[in-house]
Every structure is written in structure tokens, then in C-alpha cells.
Design brief:
two-stranded antiparallel sheet, 1 helix, alpha+beta, 76 residues
Amino acid sequence: MQSAQNSNKEQNFQLLDLFFQAGNWFCHAYNEKSATWKILRLDKFQKVEIAIDQDSLINRKELVASFKQYEAWVVM
């Protein structure tokens, strides 16, 4: 995915969900390379592709568990 938020760098994210806030659409996204979570604004995306190598993807159950850990850490 290429995003204007990140100086047009191509990055690999696995999207968890979509949500609407203050007139904009966002998503919670897991950065595969840095193993970190981000909130991305969808109108800043320049290019989105479906991953060809799906072996590197985390299954939904593990992704949700990882996000819950992230949320618990952020709240602390």
C-alpha cells in the first residue's frame, strides 16, 4: 500500500477493521515489517493491492488477539 501519510513509501499492512470518525474513514492496520499497529486514514491511501503471498498473513483470530494486546498496552 502507498500512503500520502508516510511520504509515499510502500508498506505492507494487514487491515483489521474500518471505522468512521469526524467525517473520515479510518482503519486499524498491522504493519507486518515493524510488527506495530497504526490507525490509517483511508482517503490518504494512494494504492492498495491484495497480497499475493498470503503465507505471511496472520489469521483473523491471531490478528484480533494482537490488537487486543496493543489496546491494553496503549491504555496503560
